[in-house]
Structure formats: structure tokens, C-alpha cells
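Query protein
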Amino acid sequence: MSKISKYIKQNKKKGFSDEQIKKALLDAKWKQEDINKGFKPKPKWLIPVIIIVGIIVLGLVVWSAYELFKSEPTPCILIAKICPDGTLVSANPELNCEFDPCPEIEDEFEDQKTYKNAKYGFEFKIPLNALNNNQGHCDVEEIENKITVCGDQGQYVEIFEKDSEQTLKEAIEEQFLKDYSSDKCWVEEIIREVNPNNYEYATIEYPVSTDGDFPWENWSSCPSYSRSNGISYFMADPQHPDKFTFFSIGQYALQTNDKSLWQETFKFIEINDTSNWETYKNEEYGFEVNYPRDWRADETSKEYIAFVFPGREPAPQFPGDIVISVSDNHQSLNIENYIKSLPPIITNLETMSVDNMPARKIMQSGMVESITTVVAVDEIFIHITDWQKQHQENGIYNQILSTFKFIQ
């Protein structure tokens, strides 16, 4: 059995499709004609002929065959690496299956972007680069109710719920100071000339030490949300009285490209407000869906429509952030049997409906883990996929789903 045939056989046993295997071999620089031969079974009469010819010429070609074997690329396993900017790179057989380098990130500020969290209902402006001292790409990461800005810079915002009748001070006292004496730790309302003027601000205070060189030494006697020698404070918006935030900024400002500080651009938004979103209509299959205004609808492929986050570019392994595709139901399957027919590995997450049509939300594991909502309508199945599963976490995916509807 040839080297390429052996590779094909092994990966078929692992559950990879022919198309996935062909793609991996092409990425590994194998020729198309050799790949085609690997998938084509050899006639039985050809086997003894090959054996006889091989015995005759074996002694003459050992050295050249050895050199050829060393020079031929070995296919890498069928995986990809996600770069910080969202693009995917493949393992390179010419680099001993190390990944190709990620695209370089520019040091200069690009257009100001908006981070929007539909789960908790807020947004703020972020730079694509971290600090004024060029410390690299600025990532925003969600860890439950905490959102960190620019990673190891230590800046973050936390979101908390409260009774809508409570003031900010009352909410802080109830949630953080129940077990503390009021002469040791207390809430102090403050004024900040930033954000909308009607926002409320407060800090947790404590007696300042007049002894020694460290006036904040009593800080450890109060909750960790107490004021320290860096910037930290609570904030609430009377227009959204059921929640409030805590900002931990530290001693270093983190600016957007218009020189404003990211925390000063923070504002609460209506969670389901998609009024300023763009609308994509598909007349062929009779549906429309809204997507964020600063995203891009990419119709390059004839097989799907991709909605792409600002600054990202589609790639063969990453068609887009949210991808909609259509499959024909030639076998007249119901939605449960159709999902069972999809490639492994699938986890059923939710039985639901989309615009009153039966739907199932599933998680698919493979080269990239993704969330897909399959909608059954007439003789087709519509797939709405969160390609890297990240927009399921921040709520954007469910917002997009909520706007999907069928049209005449």
C-alpha cells in the first residue's frame, strides 16, 4: 500500500470525510493526480505485475527511492490554529508540521471598534492595540460576569445585578458590606465628569492610615472592591436600574484611538435593540436576517453567506463568524433523523423554533468547535452557525437568531 493510500485509509477510520482528507493533502503540497490515484482502487491483476517489476528494479532504485522519500512532504494531521486576529493557519509539512506564522498585527491604531455584550447589555470602545507604549494586540475576554480588557494589563469591568428600587449605595452595602463594621468600611458617593452626567458613582472607603509610608494599609480589612492607590469605582445607570458595574483600572490609562479612555465610553444598551442593524435578504430561499452594523456580509461563496466581524478576513478554514448555509432534504427526513445523519461529533443542546419553524441547536466538534441551529422548512434545512462558538457566549449569536424570519 502506498504512503498516500495508507494515510487516506487511516483518516477515513477516524471519521474524516474525503473532502477533508483531500484538503489536508493539498495543504501538504501533494499533487492532485497523486491524491486522485490514492482514492482510486487498483485493479487486482495489477498487484502481481507491480510485485514482479518491483523485484526486478529494486536493487537499481534503492538509493534514488530513499532520496525521493526523504524529499516528499508528509501530510500533517487535520487541525488548524486560530490566530489572535481570528484567522486560521495550517500545519506546514515543510516546517515539520509546525504551524505557519500568524499574520503580523500593525502597531498603529486602526479604526476605533466597539465591544458589545448582548448578554449583559452594554458596550464600550476599545483599541485594536493595547497601550500607548505599544504592548501589542488588545483582546477582550469574558470570564463569567467579568470582562477583561487587554489581558495582562489588569483592567476589567464586572457586572452585578441589583433590585431596581435600590440606589447604587444600597446595592453595594447589601452585596459587599454586610459583614463589615460601618466605621471600618463604608460607601462614599462620588462625582465623575465622564460618561452621561446622570450616572451614579461610588467607592468603598476605609480609614486612611497616617502612620508610615503606606496610607492604604487598611485596604486589606475591607472587601477587595475597595478603593486603592489605583483607579477603581462602582457605576450605575438610572435608566437600567437592575444592574451596576465595578471598574478596576489601576494606575495606567488605556486609550482608544480618539484619546478617550475605554471605561469612559462604557454605556448600558437595550439587550434586544437591533434597530440600527443591517438586513440581509435571500430571495432564493425566502428569508431575511439582521446583523450588526459594523459587520460585513460576505457573499463570495455560492455555498453560504458569511457575516464577518470587523477586521477579520474569511479563510478556507474560517468562512466567517456567523455562517448561513442551506441543505436540500432529498430523503424527506424529519429534523431529528437529519441531525443524526450529520458528521460526528454532535451534542444536542436545545429544541427550539425559529420564526415558528422547528429547529434544533447543536454543538459540532471537529477542526473547530461550533454552534449550529438547524431550521427545517419545506424541502430544505437551513444551518445558522457560530463558527468559533464565541458569539454564543457574548449573546450576539442569539440576537441574530431572534431576527431571522421567513419572507414571501
